[in-house]
Amino acid sequence: MTTAIVDKNAKFLVKGAKPLHGNIRISGAKNAASKLIIASLLTDEPVHITNCPISIGEIRVTRKIIESLGANFKKFSDNEVIVQTKKIHDISFSASLGLINRIGVLTAGPLLLRSGEAKIPKPGGDQIGARPINFHLDALIKLGTTVKEHKDFYLLKAKRLIGTDITLPFPSVGATENIIITASLAIGKTTIHNAAIEPEIMDLIMLLQKMGAVIDVKTDRTIVITGVEKLHGAEHKVIPDRLEAASFACAAIASKGDITIHDARHADMITFLNTIRLIGAEYEVLKDGIRFYYKGELKPISIETDVHPGFMTDWQPPMTILLTQANGISTLHETVYENRFGYIKELNKMGAAIELTNDCLGSPCRFNGTNYYHSAVIKGKTPLRSAEINVPDIRAGFSYLVAAILAKGETLVHGIHYIDRGYENIDQKMRKLGVKIKRV
User: Fold this and answer.
1) So what's the pLDDT on residue 47?
2) Which DSSP string corresponds to 138-187?
């Protein structure tokens, strides 16, 4: 990876048609690490974070954002950092950083709590759906924030933030995280109804508890945060990336391989593991990870994505590639993002036989009756051929690499800055498993 945050000219050249074998250790979860770094802004004391995938684009952008606000980001190794923000020096950060991903909106709470105002650029991120931040803004308004929308940014102000009851229309991960971070230092009690409960959110809660927060997670998607006067420094280890683990698992099985993924956690992958077994592949839970292997002919299946503990939306793209190798017709119903099948056209160019529909191929979801093509019919088994393809987002990028591994010949993958945003040392890990891959 280059020293620039984003190298849009980087490409991968992959020579495919070889099973994956060997073992790798997955990185800390980017979807947890970036939020832990933002949470460090809540205190003027040092926050020590280990197992942090510092080199990936997502964390590098997060680092640039918090440093522009006044944080000191001290790197001790490839995966260890201490963040300390003695004072907030600015209430805004570069709009160009806000366009790369959506992490910047989570700085609103710390800035409001420590400075009384925040200037948040309108966010960018993966092209997988509209992903509006109205849930975030509505929650901040309920906590006592005034919001003024400008052409390219939102200006937020609050003299003080007061706990309240907030019901989310959908269990949004980002909105849940924003409320938890902000309510930790708000006055009184905040209750989130219909909250997201992803493992990465639990990881955020555990760090905040170490910092002195009082947060109670109920069994009915309710999270109660009792505000405290001050938070202090703490040390925390980022959970392993279950999305990376699932992506490599799909690659191994699709290629008829056998790999061991160290640090993959059984508890975080229960739904995924059930799916792997139902399609005719197999796994073995080990002391330090999970082994995934091809056992024989793969069977078609119907899958619906959902919020945790359901089948995660980020598992959908690599699973789609795997299902192209199943013997029969599979269906995949995306219920979280309305436009997450933008990568299908390139896969069909490689020989996949995937059709999209705006019907709900499963239980009616919130996109029922719309024009969003949020279901896929995957006809297998189809051989894949090499091609020149362009990556639209992080998880689709990995799925393209899986497709390239399966394809005969050499595949040139453009837009790998999306992959570098979410996967640490991806080419090195793939080479460990026998993949012929190089940056060009």
Assistant:
1) 99
2) HHHHHTT-EEEE-SSEEEEE-S--B--EEE-SS--HHHHHHHHHHHTTSB
> CA–CA separation, 88 vs 102, rounded Å?
20
Q: Indicate which residues carry an active-site annotation.
A: 126
Does residue 224 share a domain with residue 89? yes
Confidence at 122, pLDDT banded by 50, 70, 90: confident
pLDDT digits (tens, 9 = 90+) for 72-114: 999 988 899 999 999 999 999 988 888 777 899 999 999 999 9
Please count the structural domains in the chain: 2
CATH code (residue 364): 3.65.10.10
- Claim to verify: residue 126 and residue 198 sit in the same structural domain: yes
Which SS3 state, helix, strand or coil, does residue 354 take? strand
Same domain, 170 and 124: yes
Task: Tell whether the model's pLDDT for residue 369 goes beyond 70.
Answer: yes
